[in-house]
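Box 3.1 A note on notation
Throughout this textbook, protein chains are presented in two layers. The first layer is the amino acid sequence; the second is a token string describing backbone geometry. Keep the layers aligned when reading.
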Amino acid sequence: MALLTVHHWGDLAAGIRELRRVARRRVVILTWDQHVFRERFWLVRDYLPEAAAFDDSRSVPPDQLIDLLGGGGQEPVPVPHDCIDGFGAAYWRRPHAYLDPHVRAAISMLAQTGDDALAPGLSRLADDLGTGRWHARYADLLTLDSLDVGYRLIVADH
């Protein structure tokens, strides 16, 4: 099992071979589809496109993972509104969290993009939250229990 990690591997093919070698029956990878993520996740689409651009350089398309695994399938993994894990889109319905430097430090796409690059977008987010513009713009999100922003579970039996 690999959870939101393959984008950090220096040798993806070798890592996948090792997953296949040690797995008795099934390999499971939680990853994300960068194109869906960019389109559906308000934070990177509307405030922090720099973070999405950083992830463009290292994201691995789910279909590529399936090919490297020699087949398999993928399933969407909607993120619940009260997710406590702390990965990229965990706070999609709690936007104030992204203003917290401790939260950002635990999210690789934000931590590795760097505060200087994120500062203008975070300032716009803080302003929009303070004025109520964020809540007006994304009112529909506040009614949802979960959201599909592109996280995918890749499952391959061998």
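Residues 115-131 form the longest helix (17 residues). The radius of gyration is 17 Å.
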